[in-house]
Design brief:
With 350 residues, the protein is α/β, with parallel strands linked by helices.
Length: 350
């Protein structure tokens, strides 16, 4: 299927696997790339040295197929990570938050395709004006930090507002969704939860089972983790966070922050600075600032250690309708076949 996305990044299929922390590592990204879609490495939970190693590992597994790296634009070492991307010849840089005009220019000058993720039309207009090559637009159905506007409302707004390829995210998991996104004017779809729930994902089996058992009503949005709207599975741990007082929440935050500091090598000053960057313009308590800086540890507890009782499980609403664990190759092939059949059905109906 030829679209503006496939032409821009050089993949066979207009499907993107998003950069999920602790999930989108070399194995999943390699499997996605080899299936003909665009895999994105999640770098926020990696040290710079680990990022460089991960990039090289993906390249060794994929025989030159395109892939990308996701960055936190507000991270203190963002420029160091940009330098790694450029030096290692990565094809795509994606951003969870809008990057600065200067970072976009630096990447584009090096021939890197820049694709920020946004949750509002005005943000898409801003990064397009700054030179972004494409944009991922996530509606409120999407997992992790999310907004309130549904994809079906937000997507056509952005398509009409910008002149660059738009990739739809939030609520996609099959070929019918891909065709719907194309009908809205998107150049492809981005999926996180659907790729997390594949046999190529390194997420522990017990955690995958928890996702597969979830109904749509079991996927909720809470501010209890870091003060920001965060879509995840409803668990006993999330319930406890929502019921805990400020003192307990602060102790919780400090304990997790200490663990993340040891893993990441970050200083306390740097962690607080990153937390304050997330706090900018938002009414967050100090415990939420710490949680915002070390939310990766809460995700790691579940996604790496399998501790569904002590971690959080970011999830799009589609978790409630997914019931299998195909390989990335099987998933991409199935989505494209469904898309083809859907398009034929629409043509026949006319």
């Amino acid at each position: 299927m030829d679209t503006a996305l496939t032409r821009l990044v050089g993949v066979r299929h207009p499907i993107v696997q998003t950069g999920m922390g602790w999930v989108a590592g070399p194995r999943l990204v390699s499997a996605t790339a080899n299936a003909g879609a665009l895999g994105i490495l999640a770098s926020a939970t990696m040290t710079p040295d680990r990022l460089r190693d991960a990039v090289r590992e993906v390249r060794s597994r994929t025989d030159g197929r395109p892939f990308g790296v996701n960055l936190r634009a507000d991270a203190g070492d963002a420029r160091e990570r940009v330098r790694i991307i450029i030096e290692e010849g990565v094809r795509v840089a994606s951003f969870a938050l809008a990057p600065s005009r200067e970072l976009i220019a630096e990447l584009k000058d090096a021939g890197v395709v820049v694709i920020p993720s946004v949750g509002a039309r005005r943000h898409a207009e801003k990064v397009a004006a700054w030179g972004a090559d494409a944009v991922v637009v996530q509606g409120g159905e999407g997992g992790g930090h999310t907004g309130e506007v549904a994809t079906t409302v937000l997507l056509p707004q952005v398509v009409d507002a910008v002149g660059i390829p738009v990739i739809a995210a939030g609520g996609f998991h099959d070929g019918r969704g891909l065709v719907a996104a194309l009908a809205f004017g998107a150049a492809g779809v981005a999926m996180g939860t659907r790729f997390l729930l594949t046999s190529d994902s390194t997420v522990p089996d017990a955690v995958k089972a928890r996702y597969l058992a979830a109904a749509v009503k079991d996927v909720t949005v809470t501010r209890a983790v870091d003060g920001l709207p965060h879509r995840m599975l409803r668990t006993e741990f999330v319930n406890a966070l929502e019921k805990s007082g400020r003192t307990r929440a602060l102790l919780h935050a400090v304990r997790h922050a200490a663990g993340f500091r040891r893993l990441s090598g970050l200083t306390w000053r740097r962690m607080v600075r990153d937390g304050l960057a997330l706090r900018h313009g938002k009414d967050l308590t100090w415990s939420q600032v710490l949680l915002a800086a070390n939310t990766p540890m809460l995700l790691r507890s579940a996604m790496v250690e399998g501790r569904t009782d002590l971690g959080v499980m970011a999830a799009g609403q589609v978790a409630g309708v997914i019931d299998d664990l195909p390989s990335c190759a099987e998933l991409v092939e199935r989505i494209m076949k469904e898309a083809e059949e859907t398009l034929k059905g629409l043509t026949a109906a006319r």
